[in-house]
Amino acid sequence: MQVYERLKVILKELEEINLDLRSRAIEKAIENIKIALHGDKVGCEGFEHSYMRKKVVEMFGGNVYVESELTGISKLGYRPDLVIVKGDEVIIVEIETERRRALKKMEKVYKILDKIKENPIFSGRRVRVVFALSKWDDEILRFAKSKGFEVYVFDGL
Length: 157
Prior knowledge:
Layout: H1 3-21, H2 24-38, H3 47-60, E1 63-65, E2 82-86, E3 89-96, H4 99-117, E4 126-133, H5 138-147, E5 150-153
Parallel strand pairs: 3-4, 4-5
Antiparallel strand pairs: 1-2, 2-3
């Protein structure tokens, strides 16, 4: 068994043990194993979310903005996880680790996509909407495809 797989098994066992014990030492060990598996987390985001963000940035490259009024999209009541400007395209990225939240976010993005495209940063650029998910789900995939969104799954984190 490879080290990565062994760490995943150990992590699962520690999480199960900690359900009963609620030990700070075990919680710290769990956090350290997650760092070993996924890298450090960013702010209050979870380890999986931070890991997926890092992988998406590696995949697409370009100028990456962590949305906080830099592009003005947040004025529409929506703050994407990433906005990547790459040549003649802009990629709006949402990272979701929960199924229900992913569907809800897709519906929201679809409803305001035309308003988002009016933003000056999108002028003359092709807009892509990408959802990075931690688990495969056929319903989410069908919904995303029906709305013209791209889906990348980072299964088995």
